[in-house]
Design brief:
345 residues; Uridine Diphospho-n-acetylenolpyruvylglucosamine Reductase, domain 3; binds flavin-adenine dinucleotide
């Protein structure tokens, strides 16, 4: 797709734009085109005039995303400053741009005496990502606070979707393919700013203690299966600290994968698949990816694995309880592995 065949824009359109610097994992390939619209009208006219066969996806802060090493075909839309802001729009209701960070939403809510949005303080994404992913934490989720949202559909039409239209379930919405959330309204309940601030601080401290917030990561890797905590299953399957190339299962929180330096996205994804395999074998539970994986692979680490290694298992954690089946398992790389440790693969 040549740049000169694309519709004219007022914002910024970049061909072959590296996405690694724009996502938390700091890995992965380039977008065939990256579009940062000037405003909603710019986004609408671009999508209206764009060949309907060209795929379009939105990018927030890339905090729940593996961009594969072969890059993303078509157009990646990233909402910049023009879409970042939050203001009172009705009783106990904030209107927020699709590119607004969770911290800005929760701190604006505090200033307006709106409680119930503190949980967004701890999720490092944008309003568009929260709406798409039904972001949630500390007992609250977007589905409970969202009133409605403004969405530019793939054909350029601007529509308002209510929370019911999105058919929310756990970390999932039925936002139409290629749709971009440009604004959303969240409603809370009346609260004292000091109490709201205290709750935000409690949440931030709890996060700091339990998650590798300063690492290159993608947040929770797998959804919690009904009746289970994903991190516990991963730990029980002996994956704490497991490494593959530059990718590692976090020692601090076993449902987080981290890029320890120069991991490829393929290594990160292959490590996730190895964790799924071990949990399936050891616990009989099929973990479902929560992290969105987008773009094309350029080679498969599964077929040509770099050396894998053990983590530091002295820390234990997760209670040290085994799964129903604790028999040693055999890795796809041909070496027997222990059920507790990361294993020498
Ligand atoms: C340290 C850490 C902690 C985390 N903790 C939590 C947590 O407690 N709870 C939780 O739910 N998540 C958590 N996450 C995951 C992540 O922050 C959320 O999923 C967040 O909603 C993603 O927002 P984003 O804007 O970065 O989206 P991205 O990661 O950029 O994209 C995620 C998905 O949303 C889509 N998307 C992004 N913007 C838009 C838009 N404007 N319109 C339409 N679709 C869009 C993308 O196409 C993609 O499908 C955590 C992540 C990290 C790194």
């Amino acid at each position: 797709m040549m740049a000169d065949t694309l519709p004219r824009v007022s914002g910024k359109l970049t061909a072959n734009a590296p996405l690694a610097p724009l996502v938390w994992f700091k890995a992965g390939g380039a977008a065939e085109h990256l579009f940062e619209p000037r405003d909603t009208a710019d986004l609408q006219s671009f999508l209206r005039d764009l060949d309907p066969a060209v795929p379009v996806m939105a990018l927030g802060l890339g905090s729940n995303l593996i961009v594969r090493d072969g890059g993303v075909a078509g157009v990646v839309v990233r909402l910049g400053k023009a879409f970042a802001g939050a203001a009172l729009s009705g009783p106990l209701t904030l209107n927020c741009g699709g590119g607004t960070s969770g911290i800005l939403v929760s701190s604006t809510a505090r200033d307006q005496g709106i409680a119930g949005l503190e949980f967004l303080r701890s999720i490092p994404g944008t309003v568009g990502g929260f709406v798409r992913m039904n972001g949630g934490a500390y007992g609250a989720e977007v589905a409970e606070r969202l009133v409605d949202c403004d969405v530019v559909l793939r054909d350029g039409a601007l529509v308002t979707l209510t929370v019911a239209d999105l058919h929310y379930s756990y970390r999932h919405s039925e936002l139409p393919e290629g749709a971009i959330v440009v604004a959303a309204r969240f409603q809370g309940h009346a609260g004292e700013p000091a109490a709201i601030q205290a709750e935000m601080e409690r949440i931030a401290a709890s996060r700091e203690a339990s998650q590798p917030l300063r690492s290159k990561t993608g947040g929770s890797t797998f959804k919690n299966p009904p009746g289970h905590k994903a991190w516990e299953l991963v730990d029980r399957a002996g994956c704490r600290g497991l490494t593959l190339g530059g990718a590692q299962v976090s020692e601090k929180h076993t449902n987080f994968l981290i890029n320890t330096g120069a991991a490829t996205s393929d290594e990160i994804e292959a490590l996730g698949e190895e964790v799924r395999r071990r949990v399936r074998e050891n616990c009989g539970v099929e973990l479902e990816w929560e992290i969105q994986r987008v773009g094309m692979r350029i080679h498969s680490t599964h077929l040509n694995p770099p050396p894998l290694g053990e983590g530091d298992h002295s820390k234990g954690g997760g209670g040290g309880v085994g799964c129903a089946s604790l028999a040693p398992s055999v890795s796809p790389f041909g070496t027997a592995t222990s059920p507790r440790g990361g294993g020498s693969l």
